[in-house]
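As noted in the main text, all predictions were made from sequence alone. Below is one such record, for DUF3618 domain-containing protein.
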Amino acid sequence: MTRGKSPTGDEAAAPSTEELREEIEATRAELGETVEALAVKADVRTRAQEKSTAVKQQVAEKTAQVGTHLRDQAAHAAHAMQDRAPEPVRAKRTLLLAAVGALIALLFVRRARRHR
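Prediction:
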């Protein structure tokens, strides 16, 4: 273990005590970092909780997107029906809109239960 010196005669010197201490400290620090990294990888419970949280967040975002999309479709369908509906139907527009809304909500609930 020579440090950049070529062993010639009596100069085949071992590293100094200070050099050895510095090397030991560097090795300890590196070993500590390695142990810490392995501990993080071995903590399966925490990793599973993090993954679960991420999946829950994705599901919440997707649910919000689907809800917005369904509301937009319902509004579009209601406007299309209103434009094409005969006069007697226009008089009962509130009832018709409530029925369409209930139908869309029912379809949304059925779809959500099917994907569980």
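The helical segments are 17-42, 44-84, 87-91, 93-114. The mean pLDDT is 82. These features were considered when defining construct boundaries for the mutagenesis experiments described in Section 2.9.
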